């Protein structure tokens, strides 16, 4: 028994290390692939707007946590199935059986890894994603502010904002007060205007991304092409605003999405929501727990899939991982739609994919310790045949 216990401990450490190596590698690759789609949009900030590479790296880092919601369980799936499949193809699983070791012991290192993945996932959905979303927006705002900063643009024409040229004669850095201001606005095809003022200051709303020029003692010259009208105004106080969202990467919504909110923000939104929105918000709160716990639901399935891949090819582990991953999120989308239509309890709707995956895993676990000629594909086909037979 002492020898068996030592062997089990070595086996646990060995399997845990092997899974960890592949998990970290696949996690890095999968996350990079998903973030890669955003890199092209962010590159435009470097090439066309002169943004520093450091800020772009920060944007990429801050945009990664939402992807970890998907890549963490998928990496766990891939790593576990590949490792167990290699043990099976190299007859190490057969050696364990002949040594009298119950294959159910494999659940110990895999379960420990799944618990760690679930814990990291919970931290990600409840802490990292809300915080990273705030940091992402803050970094974007700082990038735009750097582009329109006035301290180092005294006495030159600043054309950072598309269609707008700003000239400032003198800048009082301490008071952030401007003198000799000229703004030429050609953003609209049928409207051209030039504003000049003796003094004023600039302010920006970080929520709406409106840039405000608060001007004093100046003139406004406007030409309207449609009506062929030229207007000239003199003013003592005038506030001129322009929106800078076009300086952001395309398709980036600066407002917080539900999955980017923390629990307090979701609870606050819940108090002002209608019946349909209430269900969506409650479902989002439940998914912050159910999604990270999906790795625990996969435990019962991935061990039978892994050790029965001996005759199914080297790359079947990757195929199984992708199929299972896609199947899980199809189940999630389907249960969400059904839940919204019939108003299922939110907790049941959120956890139903995990329950279904776990039930399928229990079926695959049958006779796991016995050798047979059935592949996983045969076993799934048998499950489908018996299901059709019962329906008939």
Architecture overview:
Strands 1-2-3-4-5-6 form a six-stranded antiparallel sheet, with no helix packed on it. It is α+β, with helices and mostly antiparallel strands. The relative contact order is 0.11. Helix 5 (about 105-145) packs across helix 8 and helix 7 runs parallel beside helix 10 (about 345-365). The model has no long low-confidence stretch (mean pLDDT about 75). The chain is built from eleven helices and six strands. It has helices at about 1-50, 55-60, 65-90, 90-100, 105-145, 265-270, 275-290, 295-305, 315-340, 345-365, 375-390; strands at about 155-160, 165-170, 175-190, 190-205, 210-225, 230-245. It has two domains: about 1-145 and about 255-385, no CATH class; about 150-245, no CATH class.
Number of strands: 6
Average pLDDT taken over every residue = 76
The gyration radius over C-alpha positions equals 30 Å
Q: Flag low-confidence runs.
A: none
Classify the secondary structure makeup into a structural class.
Answer: alpha+beta
Residue fraction in strands: 15-25%
Gross morphology: elongated
Largest pleated sheet:
6 strands, antiparallel
What is the quaternary state of this protein? single chain
Output the strand order for the largest sheet.
1-2-3-4-5-6
Number of helices: 11
Distance between the amino and carboxyl termini: 51 Å
Give the count of structural domains: 2
Order of helices and strands: HHHHHEEEEEEHHHHHH
The helix fraction, in percent, is 55-70%
């Amino acid at each position: 028994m002492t020898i068996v216990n030592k062997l089990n401990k070595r086996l646990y450490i060995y399997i845990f290390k092997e899974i960890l190596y592949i998990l970290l590698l696949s996690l890095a690759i999968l996350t990079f692939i998903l973030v890669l789609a955003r890199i092209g949009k962010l590159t435009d900030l470097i090439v066309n707007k002169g943004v520093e590479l450091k800020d772009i790296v920060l944007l990429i880092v801050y945009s990664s946590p939402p992807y970890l919601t998907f890549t963490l369980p998928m990496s766990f799936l891939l790593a576990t199935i590949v490792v167990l499949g290699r043990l099976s193809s190299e007859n190490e699983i057969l050696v364990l059986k002949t040594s009298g070791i119950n294959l159910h012991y494999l659940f110990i290192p895999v379960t420990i890894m799944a618990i760690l993945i679930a814990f990291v996932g919970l931290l990600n959905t409840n802490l990292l994603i809300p915080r990273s979303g705030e940091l992402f927006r803050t970094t974007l705002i700082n990038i735009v502010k750097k582009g329109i900063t006035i301290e180092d643009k005294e006495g030159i024409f600043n054309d950072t904002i598309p269609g707008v040229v700003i000239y400032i004669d003198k800048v009082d850095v301490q008071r952030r007060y401007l003198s000799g201001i000229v703004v030429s606005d050609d953003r609209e095809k049928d409207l051209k205007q030039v504003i000049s003022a003796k003094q004023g200051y600039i302010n920006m709303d970080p929520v709406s991304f409106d840039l405000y020029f608060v001007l004093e003692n100046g003139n406004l010259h406007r030409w309207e092409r449609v009506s062929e009208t030229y207007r000239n105004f003199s003013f003592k106080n005038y506030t001129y605003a322009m929106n800078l969202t076009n300086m952001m990467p395309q398709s980036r919504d600066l407002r917080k999405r539900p999955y980017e909110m923390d629990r307090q923000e979701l609870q606050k939104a819940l108090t002002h929501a209608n019946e349909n929105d209430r269900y969506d918000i409650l479902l989002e709160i439940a998914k912050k727990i159910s999604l990270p716990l999906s790795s625990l639901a996969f435990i019962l399935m991935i061990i039978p899939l892994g050790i029965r891949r001996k005759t199914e090819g080297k790359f079947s582990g990757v195929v199984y991982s992708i199929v299972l991953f896609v199947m899980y999120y199809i189940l999630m989308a389907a249960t969400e739609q059904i839940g919204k239509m019939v108003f299922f309890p939110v907790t049941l709707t959120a956890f139903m994919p995990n329950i279904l995956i776990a039930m399928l895993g229990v079926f695959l676990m049958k006779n796991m310790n016995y050798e047979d000629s059935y592949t996983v594909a045969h076993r799934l086909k048998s499950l489908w045949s018996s299901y059709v037979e019962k329906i008939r």
